[in-house]
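Check the record.
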Amino acid sequence: MQNAQLILPAPAKLNLMLHILGRRPDGYHDLQTLFQFLDHGDQLGFALRADGEIHLHSELTGVPHDSNLIVRAARQLQQQSGTRLGADIWLDKHLPMGGGIGGGSSDAATTLLGLNRLWQLDWDEDRLAALGLSLGADVPVFVRGHAAFAEGVGEKLIPVELDEPWYLVVVPQVFVSTAEIFSDPELTRDTPAIKVRTVLERGGRNDCQPVVEKRYPEVRNALILLNKFVSARLTGTGGCVFGSFPSQVEADKVAARLPDHLPGFVAKGSNVSMLHRALENWVESRM
């Protein structure tokens, strides 16, 4: 990334609960979920190109260049804004694919926000979030950058203030297909809707967890292990599982007891995305 003009983080997220209310006519599902960010994620670098080309210089195994959400986000923003500028993009990948912590969606959102600045488009968050929704249901929350209670397919967001504990996130070595989980006939699809206040007071469950545990024994075993130390939950459609701790020291102690075949990381929960904090710092540095 030594040639990058702008370097930004793409943070992970956790779904602290995920209720599925029903299947929509378009095949998607109405849901309710609670998003919180982590101070841990990928990193992207951006540099201007005058020729209009979009080049991602980092390869992801099994993901063709033009199919990568980063490239798709850049090209959609380019096309809809009408800019003639292009970009060189570098990705330092830390978040696992198929982990339920938002890696691809977060990368796409960071691309939209980063190029919006670099290309001097001055799009507002509403416009960027609407474009992001066409790329994935989780992209808007990363664009807006605040912990939120979400409804619809995850795009109707109500900002919330949550406790910001330390989390241990355990990463079973499996790729969980979101489409596979949402198409499973055993998935609960009739959880009654609840109010945001009820979620904040009582929490909730993850309706995807029983299906993921049944299909992926690696995830089930990770939950069993982590539950020995803390209440463990699945995030999103998985496969990452997590538990919360009042301090980094306590989270680190449990992380140190994970077996070698089960990687994980410790990160601070955050109601404001580290992407947005980094963008604010970048703007201030240019004043």
Observations:
- The mean pLDDT is 95.
